[in-house]
Each structure stands twice: as C-alpha cells, then as structure tokens.
Batch of 2 targets.
Target 1
Amino acid sequence: MAQERLYLYPIWLRFWHFVNALLCLILIVTGVSMQFSAPAIALVKFDTAVAIHNIAGIILTINYLIFFIGNLFAFNGSQYQIKFKGLMKRLMTQATYYTFGIFKGESPPFPITRENKFNPLQRFSYVFIMYLFVPVVFITGWALLYPQTIPTTILRTSGLHLTDLFHIISGFIISLFMLIHIYFCTIGASPGANFKSIMNGYHEPH
Amino acid sequence: MRDIYIRPSWLVIVLILLTIIIFAFDYSAEPLRYEDSRQISQSSPEEQTTDLSQFPNSDENHKCFQCHGQSMYTYENTEQGRMVNQKMYSELIISPNEFYISNHRSFKCTDCHSEEYENFPHEGVLRMEYKYNCLDCHEGDESYAQYHFEEIDAEFQESVHSEKHSEDFTCWMCHDPHTYKINARTNENIRETIIYDNTICLDCHSDFRRFQLLTDRERPNLIKSHDWLPNQELHIASVRCIECHAEKVSDSLLIAHKVLPKSMAVRNCKECHSTRPELLASLYKYEAQEVRTQDGFFRGITTSDSVVIGASRNQTLNIISLIVFIGVIGGIAFHSILRILKK
C-alpha cells in the first residue's frame, strides 16, 4: 500500500536549510583556499577569501540562531532529542541496514514518520554536527575574528593556535558530514526524491 | 521508568559558557604590547639587583656608573667649593643592571672608551673619540663565526639604512653595545623576541627625536601607513617589522639586515599566508622545528606561538585529513557502485 506524502519540512526550516547549505559551501571553498593558499595558484584570492569567509561566517551564526530558536519552540526540535535507552541497538540496526540490508532490497528498519523523520544514525550525526561542531566552528570563528579576545595561553599552549586548530578540525568534520549527507540523500524513493523534498517540503515514501 | 532524552540545546549553551569562562580568564601574563617592550629590553635599575662579584671589572666600572648609572649625580665644584647635584642627560645613562646582563657585561668601560674618561670633568675633545663598530672587534674571529657578523655587514651595506644614511648609520643605531643582549637565538618566548626586535625599529621610527638625527623627512605615522593591514594590532604584535621590510638573503641569519625601501615592502597577504618558504622568516621555522624536536608531535602542533593562516600547516595533520577524506570519498564510491550493481 502506498504511503501518503508527509509534510516534513516547513517553510522556515527549508529557508534555514537552504541558507545553511549555501553558506557551508562558501565557507568550505574559502576556508580551503585560505588554509592551502599557495603563491602561484589560488582557489580564491587570499584577501577576498578572508572577506567572504568572515561575512559568510557571520551570516551562518545568525542563521544558526533561526535553527536553534526554531527548534526550541517548534515541533521540529523533538527530532533532535536522543532517547538514551536502546540507542546503541538502534544505531547498529541502521548501520547494518546501510551496510548489508540496502543491497538485499530490505525495507528501511525505521520508516519515516512525522514524529520520527530521521533514522537513528541521522538523528545521532545531525545532533553532533548541529549542536557540537557547528557551534564550535562559529564560536572559534568569532574568536578568530576578534583575536585580541583570545587568551595568550590556554593549557600551556598558544590560545590563538588552539582556537585555530579547533576551528579547522571542526570545519573539516563539517565538510566530511556535508559529503556524506549529500550522498545519503540519494537514498530515497529515487536518487533525486530527497532533494525534491527539501525544496517542496513533502517527503516521498519509498 | 521514564525514558531519558538527551536535549542537545544544553550542549550549545554549555559550549558558549565554557568559552566565556576560558576567554574571561587569561591563564598567562598580560599580553605583551609595545609599551611593555621596555620591560624586556630595559629593566628598571630600582627593581633589579645584580650580583656584581662575578664581574672582575665591576669595581673599575663603578667609577663610571656612579654618575652614568643614574639620573642624578653629585660632584664637587672646586671653584665654588661646594657639592652640586646635577641631572644626567638620559642619553648618557647606562643602567648597570642592563649592562651586567648584556653581551658585553665582562668588559671594562675603558676597553672601548678612552682612559682619559677616568678624569673628571671629562675633556670636551673626548666626545670626538672613535666609536667601535661590531666588525672592529668581531670581524674574522672564528669564535664568533656562528653569528655571521660578516654576512650581517654585507646585508646591511645593501640596506636602505646604509644606502640612505651612509656612515651616519652605524650598528649602534639599533644595537646599543652597553645593553645589547642576544635574543632571537636564546629567547624561548617568540612573542618577546618579536617585541624586542620591533622595539629596535620603533626606537627611531616612532621616536621623532631620534628619527630627526638622520633625516629631514616629516614625522612618520606608522598607524596610518599600515592602515591597509587587516587586524593591524595583531599583525604588529605578532610579526616582526623585518618580516615585511627586509629581504631575507641568507637562511643562516635569524635577523635579516637588508632593510628595503618602503616601496618594496611586502603588501600582498599571500606572501606570508602561504607556504612560500623564502618569505617565512627562519625565526618561525626554527621555533617550530625546535618545539617539535623537543616536545614531540602533539606539543609541536599545539605549542607554536605563531599562527599564520595558510602557512601554519602541519604536514602530519594534512596527511591524516587527506587519508580520511579519500576514505570517505572511497566509501561513498564503493557504496554507490554496490547500490547500482544490486539494483
């Protein structure tokens, strides 16, 4: 029996998601360009990359506030709460599906519903990215924007260097997440179905 | 039993609070600024005492320091038959404490100055005496070979300082032989070295009275001439002037002495914010190598005082991130191929 289309992504969420994706792409490109700037070749001219990176980072923080406050008050926030009991078992079940079941044509172990729009692995990774690594990247980013606020030494180490390391490592993890996220979005009713969903708000059942 | 839910919003609030706490409390001393540089290059005689017994010439030198080591001195006016208190001109004051930690601390004043100075009042003609330059003593001396005095001199001769000011510009302009103390090779605190070195430049370029000694040019405004530089305060506190204003000719010298005309100064961000090695001063390379050798990899990637975005790349971290990146791409490719095959 065909499932009915679910309206999972309200307009504010789609707007936030679109802006967030765009900013992340800009930040990754300019960030990589700065980190690997070379005398002869440049992905983006260094001073231009710095300016764009700073502006995009500021907008990302404002955009994050939409996500954070939205999730505090809207129903969507409940999707990011992790039930502790049985967490490992759920994660393993989903991982087993992605590793083996998907190739045998099995049905997803956690069908998407209005109350449960993320599978356990998605829920777990989205929480880590959105509530740990993105905050770390914008907190350290703001600190690097105002480097004079950074303590000279933290734990017997240069505060600036430590902040920079946290920023770069978090940015790298977010970049990897983005790749994996985009790939896993191709696993849907059709390879393009989930991309359509995030644009029109409706989830197409498998 | 009620289910326990992890509410991630708290994580963000904890992260922000943690950052505020860490940033509100600086675990180190106050960051060094130019105004503090005097504390490094010139310590106050009142605050510091030096055990002079280890210096064989200290008794001899005391005759000079009892006047030239303080801001006031007393002498007997034999014509009027009374004791007179006199102010010592600041340019003629040598701090004994600074002298006795300087490189020339074992010297006797009259090793370089005329013995006639032992008489008071000093003869006016004595101020015409020849003042020794570095090479007068250090040239061709094998025991000082590691300091490359000859190379320094060759670089200096090609510098704008030498070309514009000829013989008026001597080693003394930057290196006071009474207080000069080797710094870049021995100081473990790179920030102190940066301030120490920059103070040498600023002693003339931000002190108009000294600046006027050599030129008729108008008063320089360093803040204005560097207003193109983003994060100016951080750059000035973290980068030595010579990094952008001197050409690095030899890797053996930690301090480049070929100072260039301002039209040739580095103004392109990428000249430093990239891995172009010849423009990254050896000071940073030396420091990073030393730290890694002494403290191992992890301390090496976290301890460095210098962060130059685009240049402070750690090769090991780069390799790890490349492996992880290739692993992720490979995993995605493998998974998608299997999906297509099993369709």
Target 2
Amino acid sequence: MRYMFMLYDDENAFHAMSEAEQMKIVGEHMAFSRALRDAAAMVDGAPLDHSRAGRRIRGDKIEDGPFTDSKEQIGGYYVVEAKDLDAALDWAARCPSASYGRIEVRPVWNIPE
Amino acid sequence: MIDARRTAEETARASYGRLLAYLAARTRDIAAAEDALAEAFAAALSHWPLTGAPASPEAWLLTAARRKLIDNARRAATRRDAEPDIVRAIDEAEAMSREDRFVDDRLKLLFICAHPAIDFGVRTPLMLQTVLGLDAARIASAFLVSPATMSQRLVRAKRKIAEARISFETPDADDLAPRAEAVLGAIYAAFGAGYDVGDGAEGGGDLADEAMFLARLVTDLLPDDSEALGLLALMSYVEARRDARRAGGAYVPIDDQDTSLWNARLIEAGDDALGKAARLRAPGRYQIEAAIQSAHISGRLSGEDTRAATVRLYDRLVRIAPSIGAEIARAAALLRADEPCAALAALDSIDAARITDHQPYWATRAHALAALRRCAAAAEAFDRAIGLSSETATRAFLQQQKRAL
C-alpha cells in the first residue's frame, strides 16, 4: 500500500533561517530518505520551491503565488510503501517535518491500468 | 467547595479502577460499567461542591452508578436475566464500601485486559482506560494513532470481552505465570510508550507515571511475583534518571549524565523492589534488566567499574529472553566495556532483514564503527540512525557524534 506524506510548515520561517540551519534540516531529510530507501519503503519524495514560484489554476483563472491564505504551506512530499496506515504513521513520525511542521498522511489509491 | 471538587478528583484517581473492576467483574460488561461510572463521577462533580463530600465517596458513587446500570440491563433485552445479579452485586458493594472492606477486583481486570483472546496491541490501552480511567485521546497520542482509531479499538476489545463471555477470574496456579507475564508486558509497553513520545513532544502522552502506578498495583496484588517486583525496580531506575536524560533539549547518555539530577528516592525504591525480588529466588528478564540498570547507576555513583558485570548480565538476558533489543543492548554494553570488535561481531550476527528500520541497531553500529575508527562506514550508519529517529533531540545528538568522527 502506498501513502503520500504531505509536509506542511511555515515556508517563510524556513527561508528566514541561516544557511547552516537550512542545511541541518536538509541533512535530516536526506538521512530520512536514505532510511526509507534502505528499508525499501521509498517510492518518491522531494522538497518544493517557495509558493511564490507557484501558480494556481481554477477554470480559466490563474492566481500567482505566494499563497498566504494559510499560515502553513505544502513544502514537500514523500510517497512511501508501507503495509498499513500504522506502519506509514511510524515512518511519518520519523520524518523531520513532524518535529517542526505537520504531515498529512493519505493512502494513495491504486488504479489498475 | 474546592475541597469537595478535589475529593471527587482524588476519588476518581484512587477509586476509578476499583469501582470499574468491581462493576465489570459482576456485569461482565466493561463498556456499560464505564458509562455508568462516568455518569456517577459527573454527578459527584456537580453535587459534592454544593453538599460537601460524602463520608464514603465510593459508596456514593456506586449508588449513583447503579441506576444507570440497571437501566442499561433493562434496555438490553438479551441481558434481562442479568438484572437481579446486578442489583444484588451493587447492594453488596455499597454495604461493603460503607464498612470499608470493599473488594479489590483490579487484578481480575488486569488479567482480562491482557487475556490471550485480546489483541496484543490493544492490551495496554485497555488497561490504561479501565484501571486508570485515562481517555482515549490521551492514550492515542502515546501510541501514535488517532483518537478515533483508538476509541474504535477499545470499543471492539470490550465488545469481544462481553460477547465471548471472557470470565473475570484470577488464573489458576498452572496458568498464573504466563498470564502474569502478559500483564507485566502490557504495563512495560505503557512505560515505553511514555518514554518514546514524552520529553516535550507536542500533545505527547507521557505515560510513565501511569505505568509506575500499575506496576506498584501489581506488586501489591501479586506480592509473590518476583518479576512484578523486577519490573517495578526496572522502571524505578529508568524513571530516576529522567531529569538527567535531557540538557537543553539534547539527549544525554548515561555516562555523561549529571548524577545530582537523579532521583534518590526512586533509586531507593528500585533497590528495595529488586532486593525483595531476589529473596523470592525466581529470576527473570525484568529482574536482570533491573540489575543492569542498578549496575549502571551504582557504577556512576561509586566510580566502581561495573562494565564487565553489565556485559555478563546481558549475556544472561540474551539467553533467557532473546530479542533484538536485548542483543543490541548487549552489543552496546560490550562497546562501553571497550570491546568494539566483539560489539560489532554481536551486531553482525543479527539477521539483517530484522534491522532495516531499527533505529537503535544503526545508532549502536555507528558507535561501534566509530570506536574502530572505520569512519566512512560509521558516517553511513549514523545517517541511517538519524533517518530512523523520530525525535529532534536524538537526531541532534547523532549529528554531533557524526561530526566528531
């Protein structure tokens, strides 16, 4: 079963950090990804650029970032292979973002081709 | 007025499990007993501040719980035959609690919670809820599941007990040891859940106090069980070092802990329980684990070298209660005793498939490799351990160890 972790935090707080602090968090994520890969649980994952580089489309309307309508923005994601939701949550708890933001864990629907 | 409220709260803590155990043992319906008691406590909180606390709070609560229980029994048509039993049981209980000789059925309740028919994972939550009256949300946060999921699991377990008519009994002599072991395992799991999630995690449920309460309860109810005493000693020693485990949010290993922050009263309680256990002459895993803690503590306090003795205790532990955790801890003890080669060999002998996502394995391996100056391999192992850690403090500690390579 696949689970998507959507990582939410205050992107401005991250971008206001010193480079050393940012690198510490990046290092933690690299270690977490590595642990996922070594346990054959990693499907995909990446950080996302600041929401100011993003656009939103609804119908024919396009909205420019940054998206300040909520305090926390999605800042990255992982897709993890786990035997059930409990196992997925065990992984999510180890994800560094759980310590300073929040993580939404959602089962990914498996659509047969 | 405040006193009456406090009496209600103190009665809740001290009597909840006793009242629930008594009612559930007679109605065999934990959920119905819980509902009735919840209503009784709510009534106490609104009445006692106005009228003053009653002379016998337990008798008062039983009377209040009674109405609701009888109503429930009446409503459930299939259980109508049980109604006279319930009425009689509550009358008896009220009479006893007035005379202060109220039967303590909590041991039966503990055995039910850790019954072989109850799923392993729900035993500890069930115990915390029924014996201590903890709410599902608090329990859920310690076990990293949502409150709704936890409630669902608890409801299912209670339904199973009611439907399967699992009896509220103390097991016979033949069956007592394994059943008691299951009870102790569930209590230790509560302690472990508190240990993992505690230490300032937001909304984290630290259940160490609750687990200590349960362990003391079992030693009172089963005074001849050496392992119950061993578990109480083990938890006392670990708990005694709580304030010293963190400094400014960072994890501090035992060798670097400020021993003036250790709780002398808890260490004494541990010594006392372990001494009593030893006199029963029935060693077991909890007693050995407590002896290991005791060796660590006395080593630090007296300056005596207890490292080799600790390794020998781990040898025994791995023999009588083999587990990955024990094997890894034995390797860590070898490492502390300046035997990194032996430590690494011990780690290498563990089945690789079982440790892919095991944080303590990788942390210990990293330290063993670092001690052997195999820096590149150590750095890799540190990364894996960091990636598997769920606490900021642990990650920071391992990062710092990695940088020191």
